[in-house]
Amino acid sequence: MGVVKEHPPAATVVAILLHLSLLVTPSVSAVEFALNSFAGVSNLTLIKDARVDVSVIRMTNDSNQYSYGRAFYPVKIPMKNSSNSSRISSFSTSFVFSILPQIATSPGFGLAFVLCNTTAPPGALASQYFGLFTNATSPSVFPLIAVEFDTGQNPEFNDIDDNHIGIDLNNIESADSTPAGYYNASGAFVPLRMRTGQNIRAWIEFDGEDLRFNVTVAPVGVPRPSRPTLSYRDAAIANYVSSDMYVGFSASKTNWIEAQRVLAWSFSDSGAARELNTTNLPVFEAESSSSSLSNGAIAGIVIGCWTFVVIIVSVLYLWWRKKRGREEEDEEMEDWELEYWPHRYSYEELSSATGEFGREKLLGSGGFGRVYRGILSNKTEVAVKCVNHDSKQGLREFMAEISSMGRLQHKNLVQMRGWCRKGNELMLVYDFMPNGSLNKWVFDRPENLLGWEKRHRILVDVAEGLNYLHHGWDQVVIHRDVKSSNILLDSDMRGKLGDFGLAKLYAHGEVPNTTRVVGTLGYLAPELATVASPTSASDVYSFGVVLLEVACGRRPIETSVAEEEVVLIDWVRELYAKGCAREAADARIRGEYDEGDMEMVLKLGLACCHPDPQRRPTMKEVVALLLGEDPPEAPRKVLSDLVRGGGDEAPPLQPSPPV
Ligand SMILES: *[C@@H]1O[C@H](CO)[C@@H](O)[C@H](O)[C@H]1NC(C)=O
Ligand SMILES: *[C@@H]1O[C@H](CO)[C@@H](O)[C@H](O)[C@H]1NC(C)=O
Ligand SMILES: *[C@@H]1O[C@H](CO)[C@@H](O)[C@H](O)[C@H]1NC(C)=O
Ligand SMILES: *[C@@H]1O[C@H](CO)[C@@H](O)[C@H](O)[C@H]1NC(C)=O
Ligand SMILES: *[C@@H]1O[C@H](CO)[C@@H](O)[C@H](O)[C@H]1NC(C)=O
Ligand SMILES: *[C@@H]1O[C@H](CO)[C@@H](O)[C@H](O)[C@H]1NC(C)=O
Ligand SMILES: *[C@@H]1O[C@H](CO)[C@@H](O)[C@H](O)[C@H]1NC(C)=O
Ligand SMILES: *[C@@H]1O[C@H](CO)[C@@H](O)[C@H](O)[C@H]1NC(C)=O
Ligand SMILES: *[C@@H]1O[C@H](CO)[C@@H](O)[C@H](O)[C@H]1NC(C)=O
After folding, report:
1. Does ligand 2 come within 6 angstroms of the Cβ of 508?
2. CA-wise closest residue to 550 among 537, 568, 563
3. What is the pTM for the complete model shown?
4. Would you identify the CATH topology of the domain 338-431?
5. How far does Cα 95 stand from its chain's mean position?
6. Residue 392 pLDDT
7. Domain 438-644 has CATH 1.10.510.10
8. Which residues line ligand 7 (CB under 6 A)?
């Protein structure tokens, strides 16, 4: 200031300006921002499917199967003054995210906060790799650090659970991880489910001197916890830092829709990130409100709103129908549709059969869509499955599949009668199975518990149906989703396998060898967790799980039991190793079964679930063993023990290798 007063000569002013600009340069390269909304923010670097959706960043595109997206701040953050400098800058960031699955029980993916020297890390894969990491078993050192908010458990990456926070140093296998939650004011750990759609606030502090990451999470509305959820210090972090890096987010998915959103974000590399104002953030919640409503008042409000919406929608619908007239009902048929064999029903026929797809006719809904009960004009009872699909291309390929599937006929397969398409909705018409699915009779409905004799007969039925798919047809048909809820019971309580081929509709992806997640958690063979495509051996694995659940009267994954019993296969395998496999049998039907029979089914279940697909029996062998016959081919080592009924030798089955 004194200098200015003295009216210095021009040269001095220039010198001062130069000096100032030199001083100013580092502070210009300092990065500091706080975005309480992304509305109007047009300078983010959005990669692949990431986009700004009104005021939030949406990371993936629901209609692309192997979708991934990354969103970066447009400029790199200086991390070191020179590439050989050992001094690393610190930074502080805070953001609000929401992870909302379409189906709560589907496999989860999550979201990662990323630091990387490029916006396109080499070899990045979608699905469980966050659209960020490669599948290389030991990735080489590359400037890529992520803090993952992982909502799925991938045992092959040693994930601790399906809801954890981890530090990833250019490796999908976390250097450190901990269950998601926070320490409240009294120091107690409060778990936090990240996959509910609720808005979650995260704070990440990186100390460049100490090489430490502190990660803290809490639901929006809860004050910032003073103790971080995860504090990780590691000198190796320095190897993964380059002189400047992009900061941002990355997420990916497969078949299952999981909406990963970032709602607000602040960052500073020169002090604490500014506080975000979370008061007016949008809230994303599951459409179906059935999950955890214990509160009657909330339920009442929800039902009230629902009724209101239904009335409005019905009024609008009636108005629309009147306006558009009936000609719209006869949607034009694409010529390729004529090529397909099974009977094509008209939409009106199915609509009137199912009471206009009324709620009271709804039999169930699941990953593939809704199923309605209907009565055709000729009085036959049918089940109509409505499958939504966005791409006509996929639909067409699928129809080719269905039309060949429609020719498959076997007493133990649920017969498809025909189909109908309306827009992007495909309706498949099946024989109606009055007794519902097997799971209801084994564990969902204890009052109608199924006896052993019937259970055994159903297992034989299903094994025969699957054997037909694998061996009874000129091409091997892989079911891909064998599970007790896909086993339906006819009026005589005979078992029939349903839904075959349907999984294929969801398997037309750009990365064919990552179709692994098609299927149902708990029934998936371990080799599908890596990148193999489904085979008849993986069907055998799923059938093995069915054998065990029927024999033990338990779901494949039961969370309400002691930890060592959670995973059915592991539990039975352990009992088997101790020589007391019979203890796993369903205690509620004790005395009904021949001990030898039961033991055989349990061991057969384990053999089918052998970690090595090569060593699993074929369905042919399974059928023979269940019927008490000698297997058609020379029994292999695993089977010989079963056939002889022994059990006193060393267990032929190794526990799953630690993947
Ligand atoms: C990007 O846009 C945001 C808000 O529009 C602004 O605060 C920020 O400074 C911009 N950053 C760059 C590097 O242009
Ligand atoms: C998602 O992807 C599809 C096709 O790949 C595209 O047509 C659609 O516009 C995308 N949706 C959004 C919201 O970007
Ligand atoms: C970095 O390396 C260059 C040449 O390799 C050297 O000239 C420079 O002094 C080094 N800088 C530091 C800070 O070590
Ligand atoms: C980089 O250099 C500037 C000025 O030259 C200094 O203020 C800053 O602390 C240095 N940063 C690191 C990480 O060494
Ligand atoms: C990122 O780092 C890697 C390894 O150090 C280097 O090969 C690559 O050129 C860097 N990329 C960019 C864009 O700086
Ligand atoms: C990694 O993925 C690529 C492409 O999906 C595939 O070709 C390769 O076999 C996979 N490698 C491993 C080790 O799984
Ligand atoms: C912290 O959590 C524990 C256990 O949930 C609870 O008992 C305690 O009251 C909580 N403390 C505060 C200050 O909320
Ligand atoms: C990280 O957390 C530890 C343990 O609570 C604390 O001692 C340290 O000061 C924190 N560091 C930063 C940069 O917040
Ligand atoms: C947060 O934003 C709301 C309006 O969006 C405003 O009323 C409120 O004062 C803000 N709170 C703070 C702490 O800035």
Report:
1. no
2. 568
3. 0.55
4. Phosphorylase Kinase; domain 1 (3.30.200)
5. 24
6. 60
7. yes
8. 184-186, 188, 190
Q: For the chain, which residues score pLDDT lower than 50?
A: 1-28, 288-294, 296-297, 325-332, 339, 506-517, 645-659
Q: What is the CATH architecture of 3-133+143-279? A: Sandwich (2.60)
Of residues 191, 154, 192, the one with CA closest to residue 174:
154
pLDDT digits (tens, 9 = 90+) for 199-224: 999 999 999 999 999 999 999 999 99
8 Å CB contact between 634 and 648: no
Nearest CA to ligand 4 atom 8: 81
Render pLDDT for 607-649 as a digit per residue (tens, 0 to 9). 999 988 889 999 999 999 998 887 666 555 556 666 554 443 3
pLDDT at position 326: 40
Residue 165's nearest CA partner among 177, 153, 174 is 177
Annotated binding site for ATP: 385
Nearest CA to 58 out of 258, 240, 225, 200 is that of 258
Closest ligand 3 atom, residue 84 Cα: 1
Distance 200 CA to ligand 7 centre (A): 19
Q: What are phi and psi of 430, to 5 degrees?
A: -120, 165
Nearest CA to ligand 6 atom 2: 135
What does DSSP say about strands 416-422 and 343-344: parallel, antiparallel, or unpaired? parallel
Residue 137, CB-side half-sphere exposure with 13 Å CA sphere: 3
What residue spans define the domains of the chain? 3-133+143-279, 294-330, 338-431, 438-644
3-state secondary structure of 405: helix
Rg (alpha carbons) of the chain, rounded to whole number: 29
How distant, in Å, are the alpha carbons of 99, 113, 130, 434, 560 from that of 108?
A: 9, 17, 11, 33, 20
Predicted confidence at residue 112, as pLDDT, reads: 98
Residue with tokens 């019993």: 565
* Cβ 142 under 6 angstroms from ligand 5: yes
Residue type, 653: L
**Ligand 8, atom 5, residue with closest C-alpha:** 227
pLDDT (0 to 100) of residue 658: 33
Query: 119 C-alpha to center of ligand 2: Å?
Result: 21
User: Which residues surround ligand 9 with Cβ inside 6 Å?
Assistant: 277, 279-280
Ligand number nearest CA of 83 is 3
With a 6 A CB cut-off, is 118 part of the ligand 5 pocket? yes
Look up residue 584 and give its two tokens. Answer: 């796993």
CA 42 to chain centre: 31
CB atoms within 10 A of CB 607: 24
